[in-house]
Amino acid sequence: MVTDYDCWHPDHDAVTVNEIVANLKKNAENACRVVAEAVASIPAARGCQCGSALSHAILTDLQLVPATTRQKLGLLIDKYFV
Known about the structure:
Oligomer: single chain
Structural class: mainly alpha
Largest sheet: none
Distance between the termini: 40 Å
Helix content: 40-55%
Order of helices and strands: HH
Radius of gyration: 21 Å
Shape: elongated
């Protein structure tokens, strides 16, 4: 998502910081919309095994995983720490 055309486009006029920030805000809004639409289109029930793709990928003894790492990655790995 481009925010500053004059930094790479030789034929474009210079832009102001306000224009860059406005583009950045618009891009952030668009990104939020894209993510929201993508999440909304995910089916409620899976027909694949991708939901448990990490089940055999964590080779470290679970008791050796630092608490800070578990907290950072909790959304992805908590279900494997039962």
